[in-house]
Task: structure prediction
Amino acid sequence: MGQARLKRELGLLHATMMGIGGAICAGVFVTLGYAATLAGTALIIAMVLCGIINLFTMLSYAELGAAIPSAGGEYTFAKASFGGFFSFATGWFEWISNMFYASFSAVGFAYLVSYAVQVANLPITINLPIIAAITVAIFTMINIRGAKETGRTETLLVIILLALLGVFVFWGLFSGQGTGSLELSAPGGFFGVIRATSFIFVVYLGGEAIAVAQAEIKNPGKTIPRAILISCLTLIIIYTTIAYVVFKIVPPADLAGKESPLAYVAEQFMGPLGVGIITVAGSIAALSSVNTSIMAQSRVAYALARDGYFPKSFFVLHKRFYTPYIAILIGSIFVAAVAATGVVNFVTYATDFGFIIGFVFVNFSLIKLRRDKPSLYRPFKVPLYPLTPILGIGTSLLLIFFLEPSTLFMGAELFLFGLIAYYIRMVRHDRICLAVGGMNLGISAYSALLAYLVISGSLPISLPQNMISLLFGAAIIVSVTYLTAGILSITQKAGE
Amino acid sequence: MAKIRKVISRFVGGIQCGLGVISSVFAFLVYANPSIRESIAIASEQEVYLYMFLFLVFSVFSILSGLLLTREEK
Result:
């Protein structure tokens, strides 16, 4: 019902710009320095390598997006091929990752505004959480206003961004200044290049926003594959030429420890104007990522609600604007709350893991659908099947292997929360009550034991007397509360 | 009897939701406040994420359990 009412308003230009804008985030302006210390000038090769890895999976997005052009992107593909918990987990990671990505970008924008104010010596104090929250609020309103408005805003932002990056690249290419060298060097060797590839891969993430918004793309059979391929190739060209200009101007070692390596490079051959251009470009990149991520998270939530995994209210469309405004609003409140805390590391870890897991799931979905539904109409087909999706799976898993342990830990947490959410929706109410009641009783027993250990002085930590009393009191309150809650939950069925 | 049960359920559910919120605030403080980390003897970054994980799991569980109790009669 609601599915039919989403309007197909986005053309090839809008869709392509969403792919490019979704991927070029503020991250590219800061990650280059550390990546250069890992890979040296071989970072140019790492950039191309990342682009090719990204392309393997994006081809799968193109085939599936053209064949199943419903809202939800990878979630919808996983639903059509696997269903059950597998599809829910795909949607869950996609939803969470997009919200965290929007938060990360909003915080990035706030930092850049603060940096610009400092550089310009303006007598203003910038409150980062407020700037981040206002940014989210503005793009929430644009997203509620309509898919066309979101697409237009994105197109405008990306055109300005590409123009600014174009100035940087062309000025750098024809500049006679600089002490850099393009001679191939890889201080970390082969594994250094692989680690750099894993580290900078994030700059290609986000382009799949096209697939998430596919229910609003005109003539999806042709437009989706074209938009995905054009945006992928454009990203490879942009990032590779940026890396080329960077090493033409400065040696890789000079970028170590620089807060904004791209701004530093621009300053070398453009002076203060270069710093200004890169700062504005970074801000616009962050804004475009906020815009696409808010749209993407809402369409995934909308699709999850369509299939009964999320509350029905997420499936409601605005009567005038035909957008899932409740999904946009609730997601944006979460985005603003996370952005206001400013916990950038935490958010980055969660984003990386979720997007890369999404890549793995999409390739699996493509293989499964090719086997189970060979007669499904596919306006676009992945070339060199099954090699391409297998390479997509292999390279994505390799990237997970090279991620920081904290990222994997964050991924495990997100998975656990997803599992809880799934069972809450899918398992019968009385069984949930029984399980929750049992866990309440377990927590109660554990707290009682803790209270005993505290008061008997058996804990191997030395605490002041007032802390012991406080801890004992808290443990007793928790124990009694959870004992009562456990009994009430277990007897809920009988009580009714 | 059913009325008393309803009142107790709402009261206990409310406390559980409150404990859940406090726990999530504590998870954030463990991440953001170095003095809190020192006071509970957290040494490495890995431990920070472990503590965050424990607090967040407790928080989600408490809020879920609290909501189940407060919405019992519905």
Notes: Chain B is about 85% helix and 0% strand. The helical segments of chain B are 2-32, 34-39, 45-70. Chain B has one domain: 2-69. The mean pLDDT of chain B is 81.
